[in-house]
Design a protein that fits this description.
This is Ipi1 N domain-containing protein. Helix content is 64%, strand content 1%. The chain is mainly α.
Amino acid sequence: MARSKAASKKQQKQQQKRGVDFKKIKRKLGRKLPPPKNATNTEVKSKAIVLPEQSVASEKAGLAVSKKGLTLKELLQQTSHHNSKVRRDALMGLKDLFQKYPAELRSHRYAVIEKLRERIGDDDKVVRETLYQLLKTVVFPGCKEDNQGPFVSLMVAYIFNAMTHLAVDVRLMAFKFFDLVVQYYPPSFSLYADKVLQNYEDILRKNQFYLEDKAKLRSALAGLVRCLSLLPCNKRKVDSSEENMAGQKILHAFELDMPAESSGFSSITKKLKDLVPVLVNCFQDFFPSVHHMPLLDAQSFDCMHSILQSIDLVVGFFGYGIHQGKPASQLSYEGPDEAIWDHTISSLLLKKLFGVFPLNPTNHLSEKVDDRFFILNIVITEIFLRCSEWICPPGFLLEKFLQYIENALLGSTCSDSRSGKAVWEKHILLLLPFIPKLVLQVASDWKSCLLQAFTKIFEGCNPQSSLKLACLSAIEEMLIPGDDMVYPDASDPLFEYQITWIRALPQLLILLGDKHPSSSQVVLHLLLRLGQCANSSSPFSREYENMQYSLDKFYSSCVDRGDVYYGPFIRLSWDSQELAICGLYYFSNLGPFLLKSIAFCCLCSELEHLVLFRIIEVLHSAFSAGHIQIADYISFFMTLLSRFKVLPENIYPDVESDAKISNRGTFKLLTNTVCSCLSRIGDDSLVFQILEQVIFDQLLLKPPLDNACALLRVLVVLDCKPTRLSEQGIITLSKYLSGYLFEVVHCIPEDDEENSLPTHQQTCCYYMLPCFFLFDRSPKLLKLVLNLMGSLITESSSSPSSHSYTQYGNDNSNQINAVVSALLLMHKDTKVRKIISSFKEEVVHILQIIHSLQSSDSENMNFEERHKIQCAYSRLKLVTCMLPNEVPAS
């Protein structure tokens, strides 16, 4: 035993020295096991490498990039990616880039279109819609100012390719793309009309998707309507009118309102003929779904409305071709030329379209549905009225449409709700252009009904609404006779309504005023046309003449206390003012009531001076034609010259701002114009006799200096040598001229004479020249004026408060200086100087009065006044010494 224990201990020591192969380690419960000793450490440690710049960033430095950092080239490449989401994001990136950098689009527009057009036929719906929005909101508006011909040609080939795609969605979306092209480049339809109409015809023949895909069909039909709206249609023409007035210039000329040229559409007549039956059949295919549904849904209504609009536009195009160069009176009911219109189409319309009229005749559905059926019925009625000239409708069908037209005009076919009234007002406009021709073709009973309903609309609609403008257009056509129209007699129902319309025009014009200038211009245009046609043989001549008594408020009117209220004429545009002015010529007897209103209007400071002289020009032409009495004509001019307010009142304004608002130049031109017109009236002697007392009456009212000078100039223009003034006229005028001369020298100071001598002399000459002419023609007048000047000095010295003819100062020195200055100005004129030499005695008498006043010991004069009198005496004595006889020494 002892040996065995020793052996085991020895063995254990040997094992410890050489190691244990599998040592058992005791682990405590819950402790994490350590990794094995031979486990591989997978931890990687690295340090960041910082470079001065990245290679990719350096390539894009200075380039336009999107929000995601992509350039234009990269985005265009991604539009062809196999993943639809990438393609859509690329299109969105292009939108972001072009909005941020518009110059990129303008610089690379052709490259952009070449790449984007590939997505027109994309299989993914979202991609196509994203492309459409990109083109609509960014690309087309950004390239609108450029030449769009090459721009469009890059797209249409892909659009037409998409129109023949197997997928219906792609085909319908292609029409939407073409509609977008037409919106921004309308000539594209005429360039590709054949292909477009053929593709529309093909897609509409495949009616299996009408009920399932109405939204997409609605979009395609809306594009068709836009294209067909570019076709020329039978628009109402306005004949050009040039009225020559006794060799004078034309008062007003009307521009031709010609339809668009149809040269680009002459080759598509057959395509349009083929399209009409397809549209009619397509419209008829909607009837089963409409009749079986309790309500007419919006998508079905939009599709049916677009179909009817397309038919209406095609019929209008054929009507335009029929009426080209052929008045309506020459169109027989046998129908148009077969080359233009196919009679089978007429039969189709009568049977499948007009035969089902009216839709929803009972009006028992909801208000919204009733309004929708009203819109459809209105368009069908418009189609019927367009082609009724050549389809010869049966009597019962014509009666049915006439009854509906009357009810529609009265508003009984639409709902009474607020929205229903708005729908009625918007769509009844389609029928109003047909009323003039319709009332000429129907029987008397129907004519009265239609005219009554039409007049109710005209009187009840809002003055500034489009409905009122449409009524005015129809009224003009029924008032102004054309090639195929004569004036109705008193027994015709139309005559009574014509008088009603004419009487309503002046009040409508005043009601519109200047707040609705476009509507006012339409009324003025109608009034002018009416005046041109309202000659002595016209039944409307008396009504047109009486119209002037209602137009005074349009120009101006006097209210209580003499205040003037200016009408809307002042604030209208030049075009409207021209129409109103030209209309004055056609009153055969333009009375003083309207002339007074026009005269006060001419005196308004807000009126442009060009308008003022245009009024005078037209009124002179009217007077020359015998439309204005001579007394009224002269009174008009006297009102202008005597009441025109010249600004500023001072001839030499002290403030610079006053000089900027001066209208003195306009008044001088007005004076010359009035003188010219009065001198062309006829016998100057007779005109002078009429004007003499009128001018004296105005002068005695003491008008401002400029107005008085203007009246004196008129007197001079009509006078001659020797003078035509009567004895009493010379006495009256001498009393006024003595005070007028004082006023001239007071208003034109001689201060700083060295710097302003030329201007001072020119101004004095303008105001004194009429007096010089009168003195030259009547020496007696000069003698009386000189005597009155001396009397004024004597009166002022004896009674300082008595100044009958002047409103300036009450000291003797001012009066004497005024007299001397006036005499010196007269002495400077060569002709007047010779006349004064004959009245040296009167001048010497004035000199003696001044001398005696200077030598007097009056206590009322101070040293300064005496000095002024001494200077004036010296100046006058120097001039007097230059006269032929010598003056005695003082």
